[in-house]
């Protein structure tokens, strides 16, 4: 396992949970107890949302038949490493909302906050998460029976971290926490100054 304190350092004082959260690819084939798994959704439940609409929806695949359904629409480049994950979660948001005149303009922003809470709680519980955008959205919509007024944002692999030796060589080389740009690169006082 990677020593996070050597791989990542904060420039300002923050809780270590933010540094510990990263997106490994090596998963153990180990069941997550329901009380632990659903605590991640409990954390997501408390994310902020515009007008308290809570547009997030999560489709969970823990049973083998459901996991196979997910693997059928996840891109092959991702299935090479995520197939051992015991749980997949589709992150979906409700776009249609009468309170906003038909469409919720912040549905994606709100579901992103919920996913962030979910990921941090997973880290706190000793789990790893890896969100994937590499999947066929049309096949996912059909396979998961997602109505057209909902948007599918990502598929998350959830589980316990395994050894990087279980990965192919290309993914072994990628199995390390990534750095981040300094705060000064993406904050601007008063007006937008960046690219």
Automatic annotation (TrEMBL):
Q: Which UniProt keywords apply?
A: Oxidoreductase
Cross-referenced CDD domains, in alphabetical order? TdsD-like (cd02138)
> Residue ranges of the Nitroreductase domain?
20-78, 82-160
What family is it from? Belongs to the nitroreductase family.
Q: What is this protein called?
A: Nitroreductase family protein
Tell me which species this is from: Ornithinibacillus xuwenensis
